[in-house]
Design goal:
Blueprint (H helix, E strand, L loop, with lengths): L1 H7 L19 E9 L2 E10 L6 E14 L2 E14 L2 E11 L2 E9 L4 E7 L2 E7 L21 E4 L4 E9 L2 E6 L2 E8 L2 E7 L6 E5 L3
Antiparallel strand pairs: 1-2, 1-14, 2-3, 3-4, 4-5, 5-6, 6-7, 7-8, 9-10, 10-11, 11-12, 12-13, 13-14
C-alpha cells in the first residue's frame, strides 16, 4: 500500500495531537473538500490567524480517511507557520498515519534556518541562509504575485518552483511532482494534485 500513502502524505495537512492556534473572529478561514475519483475522502482547513503586532500565524489542517477494499487509510496532518515582519521564523509539520508518525521543522536561528524533514520515505536535513517569505500555505490566501518564482514546501523542507500556466492558473513543480493551483477573483478555488495512480482535487467549499 505504499503508493497509496505516498499519493496523500506530501499534501494533506492534519488535525492531530499538536495544538492548533484557535482562530479568532478576525481570522481568515478557508474550507476545502478533498476528492479522489469524484468521492469525498477528507477535508482541509486553511487559517490565517489575526496578526499580533508584527507576528502572523498560518495553519493548515486536514483529516483524510479512505477505504480501499480491505485496507483503511487514515492520515492526519498539521502545518503551523509563524512569521514576523513577513519572514518565516518557525514552521512545524506533524503527520500521523497508518504507517507511523512523522515530522518536519524549519527554524530561523538568527542568521540561518535549521531544516529537518523526517517524513514517510523522505528524509532531508539542510541549512538555508536566505530568509523565507513565501510558503505553500500562503498560496491559500490570494493569487501569487506575478514575480513569485518559488514557494517553500514545509513538508519537504525545500522549494516548489512556480510558473504561471495561464491566467488564474499556476503550476508548482518539485522533483517530478506537479500541482496545479486554480484561482478565481484572486481566491484559491482548487488544487489538482497530479499523480500516476490517481489525481486528487482539493476544492473550495461553498460558505
Amino acid at each position: 500500500m505504499k503508493p497509496l500513502i505516498l499519493l496523500f502524505l506530501p499534501v494533506l495537512p492534519l488535525a492531530a495531537a499538536a495544538q492548533v492556534p484557535k482562530a479568532s473572529t478576525a481570522a481568515e478561514v478557508r474550507h476545502y473538500g478533498i476528492e479522489v475519483a469524484g468521492l469525498r475522502v477528507g477535508t482541509m482547513t486553511a487559517t490565517r490567524h489575526a496578526p499580533v503586532g508584527a507576528d502572523a500565524t498560518y495553519s493548515l489542517v486536514s483529516d483524510v480517511q479512505v477505504n480501499f477494499l480491505f485496507y483503511h487509510l487514515k492520515i492526519y496532518y498539521l502545518v503551523i507557520n509563524r512569521f514576523r515582519n513577513g519572514q518565516l521564523l518557525l514552521s512545524t509539520v506533524e503527520a500521523h498515519t497508518n504507517q507511523g508518525d512523522f515530522a518536519s521543522r524549519t527554524e530561523w536561528k538568527g542568521d540561518h534556518y535549521d531544516i529537518v524533514a523526517d517524513q514517510y520515505e523522505h528524509h532531508y536535513k539542510a541549512t538555508e541562509t536566505t530568509p523565507i517569505r513565501y510558503t505553500v500555505t500562503n498560496m491559500f490566501f490570494g493569487e501569487l504575485p506575478a514575480s513569485q518564482a518559488r514557494a517553500f514546501a514545509e513538508y519537504f523542507g525545500d522549494y516548489f518552483v512556480l510558473n504561471r500556466a495561464k491566467a488564474d492558473n499556476w503550476r508548482a513543480l518539485r522533483d517530478g511532482r506537479e500541482d496545479e493551483y486554480q484561482y478565481a477573483n484572486g481566491q484559491l478555488v482548487a488544487i489538482i494534485k497530479k499523480n500516476p495512480l490517481k489525481n486528487f482535487i482539493i476544492r473550495l467549499l461553498p460558505e
